[in-house]
Structure formats: structure tokens, C-alpha cells
Amino acid sequence: MSILAYDLGASSGRALLGQLIDGKIVVEELHRFPNDPVQAGDRLYWDILRLLHELKQGLLKAKHRGIKLDSLAIDSWAVDFGLLGSNGELLGNPYHYRDGHTDGVMEQVMEELSASAIFGKTGIQFLPFNTIYQLAALKRADSPLLREAKHFLMIPDLLRYYLTGERFNEFSNATTTQLYNPVAGAWDEELIRAIGISPELFGKVVQPGAAVGKLRDSLCAELGIDSVPVYAVAEHDTGSAVAAVPAQDRSFAYLSCGTWSLMGTEVGEPVLGELAQELNFTNEGGAYGTYRLLKNIMGLWILQECRRAWEREGMSYDFPALVKLAHEAAPFAAFIDPDDPVFMAPGDMPARIADYCKRTGQSAPEGVGAVIRCILESLALKYRYVLELTERLSNQTFGGLHMVGGGIQNTLLCQWTANAIGKPVWAGPVEGSAIGNMIVQWIAGGQLADIWEARQVIRDSFPIEVYEPEQSGQWERAYRAFSRLL
User: Does 237 participate in catalysis according to the annotation?
Assistant: First the structure.
């Protein structure tokens, strides 16, 4: 089978061709494109129609190569959505989760409904950009979008709708909204009504692996292609990344590393107790009846924003150059908590790091290399903190950490993570989300039996880089200093 996986990240997207050849996965990038948010007035939006255009370019490139596709699927980031009117047309560009229209709304909703009631129903960690607070913000602003809306679709749902004409809500992404009840296995209508939204907006929830239509006739005529079956996969990209973790043991810890870092373990049932709420962990749906007990960490977003800030000042650095400068800088000079709210919004990140350090009684890092070293060391130390919480909450002890995603190309971060956690790091594959997308398509198409056979095929197909911990004494002292910031 030749299949197409669209993997849409917060900064770029790809159309990747996947083939199973002699029991191994072969991946080829057909099309890559930027995914830049657009500031229009006071609002920050996703350019959703540009993304649709890029999906079409992926189909055209497959056509021009003479590739006959057997299926396709989409994964993307979570929480954001579009609203359709009664005529099936989109009502406004989707807001970006970093837009400020939700400022203060989470706190208001938690006060009105209580945090324990929300967590007990959904098992989802409290983040100010969760879908529940985006919808509550629209309601409180008396948004005309809500008055006209008839259908709620998350980003992959919306793009699938444009491709197929069919409307479905996929399970793994639905759970991230903080409006889905995993115990009931359905949208929580009581919670939806409590924020002033009609439950009728929310459609049928389908599981990863479900057939959800085929390319619509008008699209095929436009592009001059044959129709292709479309599957739902674990459409939250972290769900796909976890599906692609090449674990051999059923008990494993993972870190999906990119713009966001998401660390946790795979469980069969959501963990909804008081400790999970106290630690602000989340229970996001995964593939094949699993849940991802995990915690969001700000990730390489902070580094990416620093790079953009320096570019605005006329200093251009590629990522390998930044990593080299970080390696040359003095170790353990300053730390940040990557999840401090000051680092959430776009802006002058180097200045925010300096302000944070001064506020916490540290000397601000001086120079590009020192800033990047501060970010990467702080991330590695935060990974240790969250890994230890994951072990505590899941009653497991992990022998090491599986890292997947584009962030593992930063070998310095991988090594420092091993140093920080005092355990080996197994890094690979890089294209975790896309490969997870692919294996669900192959399982649905009968080419692979189940996710554990798929994980074996992944191990056979891609190199896994092993990083053993080093300099344990220095990192232990650094962790004690870092912990005082939390």
C-alpha cells in the first residue's frame, strides 16, 4: 500500500508518502510547507484555507509522480477548531490557541464550575487555551459565530470535511477539548451546557482507524485525480507520535519533542483521582483503546521564539549554529521554568528570559549561546521532574525514556535529557507523528495486525540512537538548584 500522511505542526506541515516494503517502512517527503499564524487586528488566526491549498499540493505531487494512493489521513495540533453554519460554510478563520481572547477565562470557569468537577468529568489538565475556555470566551464576548454555528469541527476534522464532505469528530482530538467524558465515552452535555454552548454542535465521535469517507468528486475533478479512501487516525499529533513509540515493553515512558514537549506513559484507563488533578496531568485519548497519561511542557517553542527575536534584530542563526553556541557556553549558569506563563505568548523571548532570571534572583544569561544553553538545560531538568511525577502517578518505574519527534535532531538536548534523568534515552523515529499516522492506516487496511506488530516494524525500520547518562554529580546538583524554581 502507498499511503499519504499529512502531519501538520504548529510551525510547518508535511505530506509524507509511506510504503511497506519487505516488512519495513519507507517514508518519503512529497511536500513541505510553512504554517504561519496570521495577526489580523487584535486577533491571531490560523490560515486554514492556505492549509487546504497545501493539502491539495500534496495530492498533486503524488499524481505527478504517478503514485496511486490507497488511503490518506491527517494529524495536527489539538484544541483549535472551526465552526460551520447551516449551509456548511466556515464561519470565520479559526483562532490560534496563543491568541489572547481566552485571557482570564479559565479562572472564571473554574470558579463557576469547580476544578474538581471539570477534571472528574474529563481527566484533562488545566491549560488556558483548552477548547472549553475558547468556547466560553466566545460565549462571554457574545460572538456572532456561536449564534450562527451548527457544527463544531477541530482542525483535522475541518480539513477532512473539506476533502470528503463528511463531518466527524475524531476521538483523540475530541478528548483534548476538556468537554469529552472518557468514562461515559461521549461528549459531556452537562458540561457543554454549563458554559452556555449547545451540545447539538458536537457530532459523532469516531475512533482511530475508522473509515470516514473518500475524496469528494468535485475535488477529484479539480485536481484530475482518482478518489482515495480517507481514514481517521489518532488525529492529535501527539496521539500519533505515541502510537509510533518503538517500545518493546507494555510499560514505557515517552517524550514527544517539538514545539511542545509532551511526556507521559500509555495507560488502558484514564487516571481521574485527586493526585492526577493536583499534579495537573492529562488523560488524552490514544489509538486502540489507550489513554495518554501525560503532562504538557512548553518545549522548543521558547528557543524558536528566541531565534525569531534575533532575526528581527538582523541576527540569523540556523538551529545547528544555536546548538553549537549552547555547547560552548558555561554550564548551569541560570535556569528557567519552561512552563512559567510568561513564556506562553509570542514576543521578545530573550528579554523575558532575562526578566525571569532577575525576578528569581539569578544573573541573566549573556549572549546567544548562554540563552540557548539556559533553555536546553532547563528543559532537560523539567523532563526529569515530570518523569518522576509520571512514575509516581502511574505506580511504575521506567528503565529509560523514549524520545520521538523532530526535537530529537537536537542531539545536545537528547544527551542532556539522559544526564538529567540519570537513565538512558532512546531517540527515534524523528517523524514520529507521521509514522503513527501511517501505521493506523496500514492496520485499518489490513497490512498490519495491531499496534504491537506495528511497533516491531518501526523498530526494524528506523535507527534508534541510545544516549547513556553522563556527569551524574553535576546534573544532580543542577537539579536541586532548578527545583527551587518550581
Answer: yes
